[in-house]
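Q: Hi! First time doing this. I have a protein sequence and I read that you can turn it into a structure. Is that right? Here it is:
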Amino acid sequence: MTISAAMVKDLREKTGAGMMDCKKALSETDGDMEAAIDWLRAKGISKADKKSGRTAAEGLIGIAGKGPKAIVVEVNSETDFVARNDTFQKLVEGIAEVGLGTDGSVEAVSAATYPATGKSVADTIRDAIATIGENMNLRRSAMLSVDNGVVATYVHNAVGENLGKLGVLVALKSTGNAEALNAIGRQIAMHVAATNPLSLTKDDVDPAVADRERKVFSEQARESGKPENIIEKMVEGRMRKFYEEVALLSQAFVINPDVTVGEALKAAEAEIGAPAEVTGFVRFQLGEGVEREHSDFAAEVAAVAKG
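A: Yes, that's right. Below is the predicted 3D structure, encoded as structure tokens:
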């Protein structure tokens, strides 16, 4: 298979590895991007994982919540200049508020009536595009709710109330004191913002992701030249550590690393006055998975193409 300069560029942006290493990785894996990422990791050249990506889109994350229900939305714009515009910020805030009365899906939020205009959210965005002169879109949305308890919220890099570059929802089920429950919930939401866990518990980790990690760890262990029985123990130890690092409730709590998030929540039950359980979380970081084109790459790509 011919390895194009564009493929090398894409792999380099995903992993941070050198151009020649990226070209070799793609050659070794017949151009399979995911396999090439794993090849680089196994060789110790890259630490990139499936979560890695470039956050290039502009716009804002907006959150609206009330007691046992909250929604987070991402509205994109072309430039950060527009994202700092009062009109755009009020639009995102309004979309989140409107979305709170829906099931939380993009389709439902888009179809909901925006009170200030009397039109749908989708039509209101189209009108705003004509007014502001820049393309905008409601990219995604998510809602969490509980029968008894609260959905705690946190916005990082806030530019206004419930508006920023990163937003988190954490749903907690409990019949205890709502204020105390929300306090620990907000701390957990801040933790989620900082650590970006893959799942709530280790049992919730996507089996495909776990299998991929196991294969990479196995390759890394074999590079050491140790016997298979030792390799198996090394891999099991690495997998235990992997689960601890990616599952929310088993992660070391950023506010007090001496305990896990699950242990911190258990300790908070005394103040809450009842058992408490995290039932889910959502983390939106602006522009996740959206890449911006860069034009300062030509010379490096040309050099690799020649090689």
